[in-house]
Amino acid sequence: MNVLITGASGFLGSRFKHLFGKYYNVAGTYYQNSQRDLFQLDITHKENVIRFVQDLNPDIIIHTAAISDPDFCGKNPEKAVNINEIGTKNVAEAASRVGAKLIYISTSFVFPEKGTYSPDDSPNPQTVYGQTKKDVSSYICHTINVRIAEKLWTANDNVVIHFIFNSKFSIIYTLAENGVVELDDSVKRYPSFVDDVIWVTERLLDINANGVYHLGTNKAYTKYEFGRKVADTFNIKGEIVPVEKKSFVQRPSEIKLDTRIERLGVTIRSVTEALNTIKHQRGCSFKTIYSFKPDELIKGQSANKVRAKLGKELGKDEDIDADIVIPVPESGIYPATGYADKTGIPLYHGIIRDYKTEKTLYEPNIEERNRKLRKKLIAVGDIIEGKRVVIVDEAIISGLTLSTVIDKCQNIGVKEIHIRIPSPPMRSRCKYGVLSDDADLVVDNSLKEIEEIQNYIQKKFNLDSIRYLSKERFRKIVPSDYGFTCIKCFKRLEG
């Protein structure tokens, strides 16, 4: 299925792109915030929008592009109308021309404060921002219109909404630097976890829904109350001071959306549950070895430096005689470099990648993933034939990549195959949305000790040897996030 996400460089759109990109062919647009894998599009230019959508011909358009700052809209009403109303009408017409399903993301600000509103209630916005979101609704028939009470947070691969992290104005940064932060304690909102917004959207698509749907939690929080929750969850010390903050546009307080979303079989996480999920997403150790870009900084160290350190740790006390070290591209390159440096065994790129293919980790169909892997990975015969090879990859999950690499090496005629993994054995599925929660694992819970697992895999794949890095040695090197590192996927489930 082909999906287009407008505003994919923004807070909500980027998370849609990341999560939908695991399972669908996703394209995204930006307006000013340039990103290398996005298309530039000004949604206020009707002809350009229609031409772009017709060329792309998506099955689904998720429209997140908007000006969502109530103050900016209040100060610049013409621009707000131009983007939020006219731009949305252009996207809706383009979707209609190609027969694409349109998902329109709206807001609780279409209602006045201090009330509970169902999807059937008539909007009555009190702000320019809310008015621009209301006025476009009559132009988007045969769509899914998702109204969100308040989207306060997310846990992207490297971006979390600035209210919590990654900004000199964030709660945690301010507490860490100054020991005190002032937060508004007057306006109450019903925050929604962005991952749940995306989960609900996917469910609505599954049932081919149309109409207006509300999404929000059942408990209201001021920013002060929410900030206390954040500090408690991440164990951040400091003083959070409740104040009444004035803004150019007074935010409506206590707008509760009657969601009725449970009938879809969906449970919306509470603030406590969502913050706990974010904590594990941010502290995920697997992202360090797979997801982060090589030059991305993790606590002052680039990801490739951390991966090389893991490879060096793996190379300690190595007692095999081998001719060459081969990384599995691309995730195995940096740990293989560290391993080769530590052991003195020369590194060669004996397995190369066809760069016209995409990452295959998130491919949900096993047969399709296997086909793509065999096409993606190419063994270089004149480098590895007759050699004793050490193959380094970042992890073993289902074993499909390992099986593909071993088959290609054996078919060419290597003399010995030794597998080295700079992480612990994967023992349980991820519950926090980093990896698929239904992924098949190469080993089950019947094997307790790392030696048992290594012996099992060695026999299963007819290897000369295999070694993992222990949890203790792995955790010693992988940086923590505010003192927390999630290694739950490396822990055996009890019972």
Could you explain how this protein is built, in words?
By secondary structure, the chain is of the alpha/beta class. It has 2 domains: 2-282, NAD(P)-binding Rossmann-like Domain (Rossmann fold); 293-490, Rossmann fold. Helices cover 36% and strands 17% of the residues. The chain is built from 17 helices and 21 strands. The protein has helices spanning 11-20, 46-56, 70-75, 77-98, 128-135, 171-178, 194-206, 223-233, 271-282, 285-289, 303-315, 333-343, 366-376, 381-384, 400-412, 450-460, 471-477; strands at 2-6, 25-30, 39-40, 60-63, 101-107, 115-117, 144-148, 151-153, 180-184, 192-193, 211-215, 239-243, 255-257, 297-298, 301-302, 324-327, 351-353, 377-379, 388-392, 416-421, 465-468. A 7-stranded parallel β-sheet has the order 3-2-1-4-5-7-11, with helices on both faces. Helix 4 (77-98) runs parallel beside helix 5 (128-135). The longest helix is centred in the first third of the chain and has 22 residues, at 77-98. The protein is globular, with a radius of gyration of 25 Å. The two termini are 39 Å apart.
